[in-house]
Amino acid sequence: TDEPLVLGIETSCDETGVGIVRGNTLLVDAVASSVDEHARFGGVVPEVASRAHLEAMVPTIERACDTAGVALTDVDAIAVTHGPGLAGALLVGVAAAKSLAFALDKPLYGVNHLASHVAVDQLEHGPLPEPCLALLVSGGHSSLLRVTDVTGDVDPMGATIDDAAGEAFDKVARLLGLPFPGGPHVDRVARDGSTVAIDFPRGLTSRRDLERHRFDFSFSGLKTAVARWVEARERSGEPVPVADVAASFQEAVCDVLVRKALDAASSEGIEDLLIGGGVAANSRLRGMAEERAAKLGIRVRVPRPGLCTDNGAMVAALGSTMVARGRTPSPLDLPADSSLPV
Ligand code: KG4
Ligand code: ZN
What we know:
Bound molecules: 5'-O-[(R)-(carboxyoxy)(hydroxy)phosphoryl]adenosine, zinc ion
Strand order of the largest sheet: 3-2-1-4-5
CATH topology of the largest domain: Nucleotidyltransferase, domain 5
Radius of gyration: 20 Å
């Protein structure tokens, strides 16, 4: 085919990702994660992440090309996450992408990490419905975006004012003695618990909060409420009902995420909701979103879990869309920008 072959590089957090696509077809998604190195710290350590990216970058590019049966010289364009994310981590990917683009004499496309979490869905479900409403929930972000054109017209409607949703999952998992990253473990143990056992707070949903923060999230109050509840239980000498705490906490997070995402879609007259980021792998979030959206006639798209967490395929997917839509390539002095807005 004459569709462009695009290689994407992602290093915004703790995943070194290299993906290769042809048009909207995924050829390979190679990921090297440093998550195990961060586990003992209970969170991602920026210095450790940057070093791990440096070590993994070239081997991951080689592995991606080998697996896809592609020579670097066949690649038509290089895409790279240039923000937002950890500054030192981003720099490793940006430097690698610039070197490749320069050496191969191919165009370079700097892509926005949040927009690429949206664009990745095309690899699984075909062309993006635009406009769509995107709920992005991960360890680093919790945002509601109105996506008119994923390559450049993305309007943030709301975001967390404190912790990200994944961060809340990780902190509560830690309180419950579950390993890092805790989201998948909370998801698993919650299956044996009751969602209504404990009435945990729904942040920024009171009438007064909704006036100023209709589409914003807050999870630090919820995390504190869980900590207080667990502490009180421990003081009383009774065992902590881990499954019930996990299920009730998860219900509170998902309830607010889904409620606000659907409110945002409805208020904009948008009929497609896309959920991305690591927390989109959550089984309750997926189920609840589909159930409530169906009642409003809103369609829900969620990429498979492997494409929800950070990866290189999402970068290649957005890069490929930029090529297809004739966007101007980035200059070879493209900077990494840790707080790049969408
Ligand atoms: O997108 P991602 O891989 O990296 C960031 O950009 O942060 O997201 C990682 C986050 C972690 O906080 C992890 O606990 C959470 O996604 N996560 C989940 C699930 N799987 C991953 N949270 C809830 N339920 C899950 N099944
Ligand atoms: Zn991410």
